[in-house]
Amino acid sequence: MRHRFGDPYRGGTTIKNGETMKTLSYAYATGASSLAGGVTPSRGQGFYFWNGVLVGHDFTSSFDQDRTDFDASKVQQIKKGETTEAGVVGLFGRPQGAYTYPLIPDKGDRAIVYLYHQTKGSAFNLKFYQQLLVVTLDGNGLVKDSQFTSAGQR
After folding, report:
1. In terms of CB atoms within 10 Å, which of 34, 78, 103, 119 comes out highest?
2. Residue 35, pLDDT score
3. So what's the pLDDT on residue 69?
């Protein structure tokens, strides 16, 4: 990754499902005028490596042209064992990432990822918001699990 993207904004480790992974995070923000609602335009890309193999990636953007925000109220429409990958894409659009084990619990499964992060406010009153949807799919492309988290203030 480094030879293609250069040095990351941050590198580190994370533990998921008892396994330690290396992480590389890239970020870009501009001092240009804020977007609607005072959101600072920014992008972030994360890469996750386990035993030297890429096992996940995700992307977030608050720029208008590639904004990754998604409608969290649709999460309840995902039905385990019923909704297909195409059905999830129909609800949320093209995924912004993909995870495999150990980012998800089972080695035979894979997940599609939807991620949005925003920052707004001034240097002395910053407000952060993030929402993450990880939809795990079984070998037949049916939803096995979905995990939605959000944090912060929109």
Report:
1. 103
2. 62
3. 94
Full strand arrangement of the beta sheet holding 143-152: 10-16, 19-29, 42-50, 53-61, 97-99, 110-120, 127-137, 143-152
Distance CA 95, CA 121 (A): 28
| Both structure tokens of 11 | 């590198």
The whole-angstrom separation of Cα 44 and Cα 46 is: 7
Q: Which of 24, 26, 80, 27 is nearest to 55 (CA)?
A: 24
The low-confidence residues of the chain, meaning pLDDT below 50, are none
CA distance linking residue 130 with residue 149, whole number of Å: 8
Contact 43, 61 (CB under 8 A): yes
Task: Tell me the pLDDT tens digit for each residue of 80-90.
Answer: 999 999 999 99
